[in-house]
Amino acid sequence: MLVNPFELGDSHIRDMAYHTHLNDNATCDTHVLYTTVSTLLYKNRLPETGSSSFQPGFHTLKLISTQMINATSGVQYVHQTTMWILEQLKNYSWDAKALLTLAAFAFEIHRIESLESPWTNEVQSRWKVPPIATNLVAWVMEALEHIWEWLKLSSIGYNTEDVPSLSDAFNEIPLLVYWILASLAASVANIIASSDYQLSDFIDRLSSIDNNLKEHLSLIKQEIDGFEDYLRRKEMFSQTKDGVSMLRNLCEPTPEFPRVQVYDGSTKTKKGFEVFKQKHVLLYFSEFNSIDSEILFLNYIHVRLEENPKEVIKGFKKEDFKILWIPIVDNMDDSAKIKLRFETLKSYIRCYAVEHFSKLPGIRLIREKLNYTGKPIMPVLTPKGDIMNEDAKDLIFQWGIEAFPFRKFDGEDLSLKWKWFWDVLKKLSLGIQLEGGKYIFIYQGKNREWNQKLAFELDKIKAHETIKRADCVIEHYQLGKNDHGAISSFWKEIEIKKETKKASKLHEVLDYEIQDKMESLLRLKNDPQGWVILSKGSNVKVLGGMKPMFETMMNFEMWKDRVLQIEGFDIALKEYYDAQAEDDAAEEVKPTPPNGKMPLIREPPNGEKPQQIIFIKPPKGEKSICDRICSGIKDFFHQCCACATD
């Protein structure tokens, strides 16, 4: 069935044209053929082209021109003729298909001495060549040049992974060749056979596709420049011997024309990368998505490094470490919005930040060499440009300034402090995953009510808007929830770990520190309401009682703002929890003045029957037992054990 090509989509026509193409085995000396065609059509126009060994076959050209002349009125016949030509030329390259058809067109009007714009009146009258045909031929010649430009660029040898627009441009070529052939067929039919095709419709379609190809060619050149720049930066990355050069390589457009400035959050001034000379730099790569909570994190490290800056730890001075936030921008359309956002962030940034609001010149290196995948990372750069730690973010998140100087093995040493604890929990199969910078609550109340109340409050906090803004991930696990025997197994394993550690003959500082932590944990065992442990990753931050922790969670609205004001959720929680635990302890030991009648009642564990302590009034005229015991130190104990008298 004959179809109207103007009613078909580009993808449909592209597929039809491409399916006729078999291979490029048939040779065609496009240089010689183009010279011949341009001599017939235009004088003195000979663009540079490739070479092979083709001699134009007049028989083939005559078949094509005859078929074009016979394309009677009706665009469906132009489509039929175009598909026939494509089938006849299935073994030729795409540029050869277009050039051979143009040659057939030129030979059909070979008596014309020149086809300059405008053509001579005598020639136009003789062949009935409308002026619009001149424009059509000009578009065809320009389109051919663009096809050859693509061939030249693609022959350099770049992969489409490095220059993806090579593939996009090629996608236009079968479609462009189709409309070149269709336009020439319609034009020949009009000139020779007096058909009445609207060549302007063909030119519109041809020019539109050719413009698309030109845009792709422009992108190809940009991508080639970008790839060559990447190769240059890649070589510099492997050869750089200082940190400042490394930073410039990643962030500045070219070494000759640096345009990137560094904002100093401490002094609110702008500086160059020279400020990091002879410094270790904690590079923080991240997008703007959750930068508010991340700046709190960066400010926390900055403040800790500023405390006693001359202090030497493990052979490193704290003042020799600086923090640099390098924003990652992928969407160029957001540059203006991001710039405004950065101006707002300046008010509370304390560390350094790169003022760059478009795609970083070294982004490909950052992805390949520093393993940036879209999530924030913090590699540590030495003054010599080496990477001391590929990503210290989780290490610092868990251990803070304790992890200084932030080498990978510094974190491994710190993790030994609580390794024994996590080894025990691993045996209990709670499914806890320590990776990913999470806050983990592990708890066990003395009865179901305490467990349910705490779990309810924790779930409320997890869904709170403040926690979302702070980008906190909170998980909680009840020990013994599905297996009550896990509770006794847990404490039994802790006791074994403790005795094993005490029997160790190493007696290193770390061993004593671990023993202290074991003792602190074992003291929670007999808490009357239960116990709660909070960890930040593998770093246990709080060993607490159930009652003060529950009250802390229940009163989250009272301390929620501190989460966004100070270093993090765990710091804000511990701040409130310590005050709450102190109040609870004071309440427990506060005496009730005895009057001979009022009992002092302590809350019993596990719902047992309350026990009463009764203060008995002594006989008249006799001193109380308390008076006799406290004789000599009565003034010291007066407030806490005064006895009733008449």
Automatic annotation (TrEMBL):
Residues 34-108, 134-240 form the Sieve element occlusion N-terminal domain. One of its GO terms (biological process) is phloem development. Coiled coil: none annotated. Residues 584-609 are annotated as: Disordered. Residues 435-582 form the Sieve element occlusion C-terminal domain. It holds the Pfam family SEO_N. This is Protein SIEVE ELEMENT OCCLUSION B. The lineage of its organism: Eukaryota, Viridiplantae, Streptophyta, Embryophyta, Tracheophyta.
